[in-house]
Amino acid sequence: MDISEPLWTSSECEIACGRQRRRPWYADGVQTSASSVLPGDLYIALELEGRDDEEELATAFNRGAVAAIVPTSSPASDIVDDRMMAVPDMEATIASLARYARLRAPMQTVAISGARGNRTLTAALVATLGSTGPVHSARTSGEGDLARTMIRLARGTRFGIFDLGVEEAAAIQPAARLMGADIAVLTGIGADVEDTADAEIRVAAAAALVETLPAETGTAIVAADMPGADRLIGAALATGRQVITVSVDPASGADIAPSRIKECWDCTCVTVDVLGTPVTFKVAAPGRIWAISGLIALTVAVLTGADVGQAALALASVQPIEGRGRHIPLSAAGGHMLMIDHSAGLEAGEMRDVLKGMTRVPTKPGGRRIALLADPEGAPELSLVSAMVSADLSRLFALGDRVAEAGMEAETAVERVVLTQRLAERVISVLRPGDVLLVCGGTGTGLGAVVAELVARCSVDDDHLTLNLRLAE
């Protein structure tokens, strides 16, 4: 247990909660479930419901909790124990602790709001800002959820990264104020709602977030390539805050856009001027979603005073995350093959780019390019035919009419499939050594389960994959 810099002390909790305890203590962790308590933790009894409360409290102390905060409404609050602090309102207490944690941490805070690429952006920000100082990152939903993560905020945290996802204005503003956001990153409203009433709700929420930023120093960064970017830019400008647009298209006219971008099968290389700082960097993940994440991360690094050189170098270590371009080695039919996992959900434009990128992925002699595709989100007018032609697929497993029709028009061998437990088995039956399998589709298509089944049946270690692919080059 590291207690050189405790997460919480009894005096801090007393100040934050307005309660006093006779026994001093310090804790280097926080748990809200008694069964998760480790020695040295502070136990905050959020899950007490009146049944077996005393037993839950005993469990926490037996597991090594140094102190406990419990609601006065619980029978456990009647126990005489100087390690306990009883409070009338647990949610208000959590919020008070969160505010105290925020005030003591010398951090600059980035709030991410939108429907596209939030996880890839978070990964890029953690890598770039983490090269300068300690980072706290979390994906939250609403003020209460945010408070629960902020009570775990270390006192030396320099950068906070909070993914708010898609929230309405009434929920997003209290959360943004609690975290003390300095920078807002708007990642798009989502192609699936671009022409619906939900689009205006999401634009209003983005504007509400930007309004919480400091009037003089707050900055909104807008991903200019994402759906609804024009409306987001207009809404952000209307708040009077500084707005910076970022694009991967050199001809876009965005404030931050590369002078050169090269996409390879396993990485993306970019040269760009970031607010007067020339940078060349590599993201160790292919695809434009990773390129724009890198551009935004470097923009944030400049704005926050992070070490831009170290930040650029850190991007080279960023690996694709689950469902977002991760390269997974498979072993079947007496040999090795590669699966590219985009099962987390793609919009039509993203699927088109991924298909076109398939031509850059090396195959061993005799290897083929095969795809398992589900219909993407949004943009029904966007044709996937030319991308199918570019991908040069030997076979397409089509989970949806749109991809099936595009594949047939591209003169690809199409097999229509349905999402069953036997789908992975069917795909495995046609794979042979040297093949590259692409799996992608829109959100909610269930392809993640298929990927998991393929991995379970055909997994192989990364060293075999590296050797296999290098031999293919």
From TrEMBL:
<keyword id="KW-0067">ATP-binding</keyword>
<feature type="domain" description="Mur ligase central">
    <location>
        <begin position="123"/>
        <end position="300"/>
    </location>
</feature>
<dbReference type="GO" id="GO:0016881">
    <property type="term" value="F:acid-amino acid ligase activity"/>
</dbReference>
<dbReference type="InterPro" id="IPR035911">
    <property type="entry name" value="MurE/MurF_N"/>
</dbReference>
<dbReference type="Pfam" id="PF08245">
    <property type="entry name" value="Mur_ligase_M"/>
</dbReference>
<dbReference type="GO" id="GO:0005524">
    <property type="term" value="F:ATP binding"/>
</dbReference>
<dbReference type="InterPro" id="IPR013221">
    <property type="entry name" value="Mur_ligase_cen"/>
</dbReference>
<protein>
    <submittedName>
        <fullName>Mur ligase family protein</fullName>
    </submittedName>
</protein>
<dbReference type="InterPro" id="IPR036565">
    <property type="entry name" value="Mur-like_cat_sf"/>
</dbReference>
<dbReference type="InterPro" id="IPR051046">
    <property type="entry name" value="MurCDEF_CellWall_CoF430Synth"/>
</dbReference>
<keyword id="KW-0547">Nucleotide-binding</keyword>
<keyword id="KW-0436">Ligase</keyword>
